[in-house]
Every structure is written in structure tokens, then in C-alpha cells.
Amino acid sequence: MKQRDKDRFHSLKMADAYNQMCQMLVPGYDFLQDTLINILKFEDIKEIVLLDLGAGSGIFLEKVLNEFPDSKCYYLDYSDDFIQVAKERLRKYDDRVTFIKSDFSGNWESKISEAPTVITSSSAIHHLSSENKKKLYKKCYGTLKEEGWFFNIDEMKTVNEYAYIKNLYYWVYHANKQKKQLSDDDKDTYLKWMDQFNNWKKRNVDDIDKPKKEGDDIHESFLAQLDWLKEIGFVETDVFSKHFLWCLIGGKKVCGTF
What CATH fold (topology level) applies to the domain 28-158+214-252? Predict the structure, then answer.
């Protein structure tokens, strides 16, 4: 089976539209990212060296760099177009950001000179197969500094299958509803974003019963993913927050492990 819409991440038009629209059109986008930042504040991590996997347009890293003036960040993505958008967004933090171009299966850890105290990801890991999700989680555990934290904000299945399907439909409802809130200047960008979102709807709503392949939206149960984190060795694992289709899960690396 061919991967559907496989080139959606390699388009400057798409990267620009995502950058401008995601905070309005993705339910809970800022809420979940801000929750993660509040967790970091509560944990009182003395030195934040943060690696963001699939960092996209750099919105989350901009928040981290602003909230934690002494932080350093690694940006990782494989799309030249998103990297271009992110470099413009993060230009004023240039001395505190290292850009790494790589997909998740690449040897990206060799390009990190300082072990991260935090590894994060937002709406990216769900494109991997179950086996490759587990491999990435294990690589993150090995890359983290001792006592470091891993967090993933992502599209995930919920406890009940019917509730999961309703969450898919809710995103369609939310994205269509937001059109009424837009100024005339934003409507062209909205339509560009919706061109891609309608492909997401076809993959996940219209064709919900079709098999999935690496690169598609492979939604796993957050319960299963928490079990994977525990098996790898993460402690204090939890669903720290949830908003419809999106869950914020994570865990901490214990002392004395690889």
C-alpha cells in the first residue's frame, strides 16, 4: 500500500500555513504546550537543555527560550521548508538554538554535544509504526541526562473506541467552526491549511477502516504508550493532560541507567 499524501511535510506553502494557523485550528494547541512548560517550572530543572523532536515551525521552542532565559535548545526536523520557517521565527535566539536536520531514524543523537535534560515532541511521533515508536522512546531514554524528562504531545487513541472516533470528528468540527473567527486577510491562509487538513480527514475519518502504514497517522492508545515508557525504564509516567485527540504523556529517566 502506498503512503497517502506522503509529501505533505515538504512544502513551504504548507509550512507557512501551518505556522500561521495551528494555534487556532488545532484544538488545545497552546493549552497543552503551556501545560508542559508549567510542568518544567514545577520540576524546577536547574539547567534546561531541551531537544524538540519534529520541531516544525518552532512555536514550542520559542516559548521555551522566552520562558527560560538560560535554556539551550536543539531543534530537530527533516523538512527543509519547516526548518526555513523555524529559523526565521527563532532568529533572535540564534545563539541558543542548534538546528539538526534528520528524521527520527537518523543518527541525530551523534550531533548533540550536551545531553538534554528534557526531550519533547508535539504532533510528530504518531506518524511512526508501533515498533518504531518504541525504538524512538528507547533512543530518547538513552540520550537523556540522568533525571531528565521526556514528554510527548500527540494524537492518541483514548480508552474507548467510540470516544476516539468522536475526537476525530471533533477536530473536523473545530477546524470548520474557526473560519467564522478569521479576518479577511487570514482566509487565504486558512484555505491552504484546510487543503492539507481535508487530506487528514480522508485518511482518518472517511477511510478510518483502511490499514495504516509508516508515515500515515498511526494513533496508538495512550495506555499502551505509557506501558512502553515503563518497560523502557521511565518512572513517574503519566498522562499529564488530555484534550480530545491530544494527550500529553511522559516520564523521567532514573539515575544509574544508560
Answer: Rossmann fold (3.40.50)
